[in-house]
Amino acid sequence: MSDQQPAETTEPAEGPSPLPAEPRRRRFRDRTLLFTLTIVLTVLVVGATVAAGMFAIRLNGNLERIADPFVALPSRPSMPAPTPDEAGDLPADTAMNLLVLGSDSRVSAGDPGDWEQGAQRTDAIMLVHIPADNSAAYVMSIPRDSWVDIPGHGMAKINAAYSYGGPALLIETMEQLTDVRIDHLAIADFESFTELTDAIGGVRMTLKEDLVDHGTLILPAGEHQLTGEQALTYVRQRKNLARGDFDRVQRQQAWVRAIMDKVRNDGVLTSPNRLTTFLDTATRSVAVDEGFSVQEMLGIGNRVKGLASADVQFFTVPIEGIGTSADGQSIVLLDEAPFDTLMAAVRDDALAGYLAEHADDVDTLPDVAP
Fold first, then answer.
1. Which one of 6, 168, 176, 353 has the lowest number of neighbouring Cβ atoms within 10 Å?
2. Could you read off the pLDDT of 77-121 as tens digits, one per residue?
3. CA quadruple 63, 316, 364, 189: dihedral positive or negative?
4. For residue 126, with 0-12 CB atoms within 10 Å meaning exposed, 13-18 middle and 19 or more buried, which class applies?
5. Residues paired with residue 139 on neighbouring β-strands, in sequence order
6. CA separation, residue 6 to residues 246, 337, 358 (Å)
7. Could you tell me what percentage of the chain is helix, strand and coil, using 3-state DSSP and rounding each to the nearest 5?
8. What is the CA radius of gyration of the chain?
9. What does pLDDT average to over the chain?
10. What pLDDT does residue 120 have?
């Protein structure tokens, strides 16, 4: 992919511009960044065994639900048939694809239940694939400025789909672009980033460069235990990064990886008090489609609970480079042929083989993020 730095993000020329941020309604002010849902899935089954019954009911009550965004879709990719193993046996589980959206509160995701045209957009888009054999999990970032065809609106940045038509139109856009069927949706934002990070006592991260905010040194380069506020500063930066948004995406991925490492390796799962605090915070930090039941989450959590951090692979989809639209917007150009090959591997539940053969086509999260 190109190492060019994207120019400043501009809003789509078509459709209304985002409105100023309004006060959060209900629990959406408590949502956290990005991949919270997957973190919950990884540990929820453990939490259920530690504190079943009433606690599980409380966790279910914490989750905010989005009215079914799939019901009005005019057409959808077909559900893939399960692939037999070498012995000819069908897998016990089926592959699953989750669409996870993240938003910076400075532009306001607002309340997904009260979506208004032009008032909301999403800053981070991740497709999470869990294979039928439960051997790994794959987290694919799609740059927010990717220039794509949005049904009913023509070519625009992919994050404009949420502004034009809310969760349903973004799902329709993604399914049209990838021909991958989305099973469930989760939405998060930056605001409670600090809460979740502090709930587990901070996260250990290696800073490649000094962490500076508005000219003030926050932390020097090196390994540090980041508080929630420090981590928030880390993932929000873009202008001082060599590859702009591309490096910012990797910082977001690195935070998710650090959360997972901390939860799995620092005694959170074995401490009832810490686990309760974490689960309570996490389930108050995400909105999901109304069809995503706690029972299904528990089932997925049981599927992935044995994964190590190394089994979760983070990467950005194939990118051709940076371009300019006819109306002067700075846009990200997807590398169509490799992108289509990647999505075919997602549909065929064959990502492990794809990544072994096409490692250079994707932008893989390194051991130390930019």
1. 353
2. 988 777 766 676 767 788 999 998 876 543 334 444 454 444 456
3. negative
4. buried
5. 128, 314
6. 8, 22, 25
7. 35, 20, 40
8. 20
9. 78
10. 53
